[in-house]
Amino acid sequence: MTTNSTALPLPASFALDRRLQRPLVILLALAAPLIALSMGKSWVRVLDFALLYVLLAIGLNLVVGFAGLLDLGYIAFYAVGAYTWAFLASPHFGIHLPFWIVLPLGAAFAALAGIALGFPTLRLRGDYLAIVTLGFGEIIRIFMNNLNQPINITNGPQGIDSIDPLTIVGLDLSKDLDLFGVQIPSLTLYYYAFLACVVLAIILVRRLQISRIGRAWAAIRDDELAAKAIGIDTRMMKLLAFALGATFGGVSGGLFAAFQGFVSPESFSLMESIVVLTMIVLGGMGNLAGVIVGAIMLTALPELLRHFAVPMQMALFGKTLLDPEVLRMLLLSLAMIVMMLVRPAGLLPARTRYAHRDRRNA
Amino acid sequence: METFLQQTLNGLVSGSIYALVALGYTMVYGILGLINFAHGDLLMVGALVALQTVSLLNAAVPGLHPVVLLAAGVAVAVPMCMAVGYLIERIGYRRLRNAPRLAPLITAIGVSFLLQTLAMIIWGREFHVFPQLVSTTPMQPMDGVVVSPLQIFTIVVAFALMGGLMLLVNKSRLGRAMRATAENHRVAGLMGINANGVIAATFIIGSGLAALAGVLFASNYAIAHYGMGFTPGLKAFTAAVLGGIGNLPGAMVGGLVLGLVESFGAGYIEHLTFGFLNSSYQDIFAFMILGAVLIFRPSGLLGERVADRA
C-alpha cells in the first residue's frame, strides 16, 4: 500500500482551479461566521471551537505527523495552558494579568511540561512514549481533581469560573461590539481572534516543515537509525517537536479558558486527546490541510449528529437508540480503525517529497 | 506491623490481578512488538459478560449455589473474550503487521474505544454491582489483620493460572512454537510453524487470562462498568514494563511488585508527604514507577533489551 495508490483522484475541474483555491478558502474563512450567524448563534460557537481544535490538531500534528511520535496525553498541555490562564487571570487568586503576559506564560509552561515529559522517554521506543504520555495525561487530571486540599490550588472537580475574557487593546471580546451602528456579536469577535492565531500557526508550521528542523523530523519519522547516521541529533529534534507541539497546546488552552470563562478537569479527559488524534488521523497525518479539515469535521460532528441523527432515529425507530454522544464515540473509534486499515494516509494524504512511509520502522 | 501485613495482603491481591493482565500484554508484545491497548478493555468485557451470565442464570434458575453461578459466569466470559481477542487480531492487527509502527498503535487505541463504546451501548453508563459469589466475610488469622476467602481465592486462582501458563509456554508444543515465533516469525514460518495460528493463539490465551482477571477484579471491587478496564490495563502495562516487557516471569513479578508498591504507597502516602497528598493519589504510583523504570532501567527487572531498536 503506497501513499500514492491510495490518493483520492481529484475531479478535473477542482484540480484546474488550483489558483482559485487559496482565495476561495480565505473568503470562506472570513465569511464563515456571517453564514453561521444566519443559522443561529450556536453554530458560530461551533466554529469558534473548531478553530481551537484546529490549533490543537496543528500542534499534535507537529508531534505525530511530522516527527512520528505518538502522544496520547496531548490534552494535558491544553490543560496546562488553560489552568495557567485561569490562575493568572481570574478572581480565583485575585490576579488579573493581561493576555500578552498570560498566553506566553501558558505556552512556556506547556513547553516545559513537554520537555520534562519527553526528556526521559524520547530515547525509548515510540510505543513507550504512547503509554507514558497516556499516563501523564491521567496524572495531570488526578492533580487537577485533587489539588483543592489541603491548600486550594485548582478548586478540584468544581473547576475555576469567572475567568477574565480575552481583552485586546481595551476591546473586551466577551461583549458585543457596536461598530458604527453594526452589532458584532462576541462570538464573532472571538472567531476572528482565533482565526488570526490559526493563520499565524499555519504560516509558522509551514515554514517549519520545509526548514532544516522539519526535514530532520521527516527523516526521524521515516527511519530513525538512518537519520542518526547522517548526523541528525535525533534526541534533540524529538524533544523540540515535543516542546513545540506542547506550546501550541498551551496557547489554545489559554484561549479556551478565556473563551469559555470556566475550566474544570472534565474538559481535559483522555477522550479529548483521542478526539484530537482522530482529527489528524482522519484528515491525513503530516498534511496541514488534511489536519485542518479533520479538525473542522470532527468538531462539527456532534452538532450534526444532534441535528440529524436524533430525528432520523426517531423517524425510523420511534425513539433514540443511540444518543449523539455514544454515536460520536462509535464513529470516532471506527474511524480510527477503518482509516488505518483502508486509508492510512488520511483523507487528504501528505505529499511525501522525501520518502515512502510504508516501510516498517522496526 | 499489623498495617504492614495487611497492606502486603492487599497488595498481593491486586498485584496478582495485575500480573494476569500483564501476561497478556507481554505475550503479545513479545511476539508482535505491539502494545495491545485494547487488552485492558478485555478485562472489562470479561467482567460484564460474567455479570450478565450470572444475573440471567440467577433469574432463570433461582437458588443456585454461588459457586455454580461463578463457574457459569467464567465459562461464558472466557470463551467470549477469547473470541473478541481473536477477532481483534484477525480484523484489526493482522493486516497491519508490516505497516509503519504508528498504524497498529492507532488501530489498537481505536479498538479499545470501540470496545468501551459497545459496552456502553449494551450495558449502559451506570456502575453495576457485581455479586459476591465467593464469601467476603472477613476472617482474622491474627490481631489487626483481616483476610477474606475471596482474597485467598483470588491469589490462589491467579497463581494457578500463572503456573499453568508457564507450563504451557515452556513444556508444550504450542509453547515452543510461540517462543520460536517470538524469536523471529519469518524464520519460525520456515521451520514449519504456522505463525499466524500461533499469533492468534497468543491473543486467545491472553484474552482468556484477561477475562478471568476481569472476573476477579470485579469480584474484589464488587463493581463492573464499561470504563473499568482502563486503569487496570494501564497498570498492568506498567507491571509488564517493570518486569521487562516480553518476559513472562517478569510480568508476574512486575504485577506483584506494582500491587505491593501501590498498596504500601496508599497506606503511607499521608505520612510521607506530611499530609499534603492523601490516598486519592494512589493511582499516580503506577505512573511514577513507569517513569522511574524507563529512566533508570528500561529493560525492566528481569528484562530483555528494549531500548530503541530502530
Textual characterization of the structure:
- The complex is a heterodimer of chains A (362) and B (310).
- Chain A is mainly alpha-helical and 362 residues long.
- Chain A has a single domain (22-342), classed as Orthogonal Bundle (ABC transporter involved in vitamin B12 uptake, BtuC), CATH 1.10.3470.
- Chain A contains 13 helices and 6 strands.
- In chain A, the strands form 3 sheets. Chain A has a two-stranded antiparallel ribbon with strand order 1-2.
- The longest helix of chain A is centred in the C-terminal third of the chain and has 30 residues, at 288-317.
- Chain A starts with 11 loop residues before the first helix and ends in a 20-residue tail after the last helix.
- In chain A, 48% of the residues are buried.
- Chain B is mainly α and 310 residues long.
- Chain B has a domain at 15-229.
- Chain B is 72% helix and 4% strand.
- Chain B contains 11 helices and 4 strands; from the N terminus they run H-H-H-H-E-E-E-H-H-H-H-E-H-H-H.
- Chain B has helices at residues 2-32, 39-60, 66-93, 102-123, 149-171, 173-183, 185-190, 195-221, 230-243, 248-272, 284-296; strands at residues 128-129, 139-142, 145-147, 223-224.
- A two-stranded antiparallel sheet of chain B has the order 1-4.
- In chain B, strand 2 and strand 3 (145-147) form a beta hairpin.
- In chain B, helix 1 (2-32) crosses helix 10 (248-272).
- The longest helix of chain B has 31 residues, at 2-32.
- Chain B is globular.
Question: Which features would summarize this protein structure in a list?
Answer:
heterodimer, A: 362 residues, mainly alpha, ABC transporter involved in vitamin B12 uptake, BtuC, two-stranded antiparallel ribbon, two-stranded antiparallel sheet, 13 helices, 6 strands, 4% strand, disordered C terminus, B: 310 residues
